[in-house]
Amino acid sequence: MDPCIFCKIVNKEIPSEIVFENEKTVVIKDIHPQARVHLLAIPKKHIECINDIDDSFSEDLLAIHLAIKEAASIANVVDTGYRVISNCGSGAGQTVMHLHYHIMADKGIGEKLI
Ligand code: AMP
Ligand code: ZN
Asked: What pTM was estimated for this model as a whole?
């Protein structure tokens, strides 16, 4: 079975606009932005959604949060504020079944920042 689209992005098998990367996470620009800043923080390890998190994922979760913080800083929205959203399950609107966190911000200074 083909790996999922975010696994392909993580493995650089398909292109994406990478904003930040650490050992366990990649942050990319969403291909269909729904906000002035719309990024996706994606763990390199494939799990479907929050329902599948267990203790073995603790280091990955820290890495994701550090990556989100760094991406917010790169996007210059740390002071103006940003939202972090993770859809879990198709009933919640999840369309890519690989855990990811939307980082979204509409406020900010100037034109499109990132
Ligand atoms: P969700 O609906 O929560 O599963 O979010 C999936 C998100 O992935 C959507 O906002 C899509 O626009 C985005 N997306 C899908 N394919 C790509 C891609 N190849 N590169 C960047 N973002 C993507
Ligand atoms: Zn995957």
From this structure: 0.94
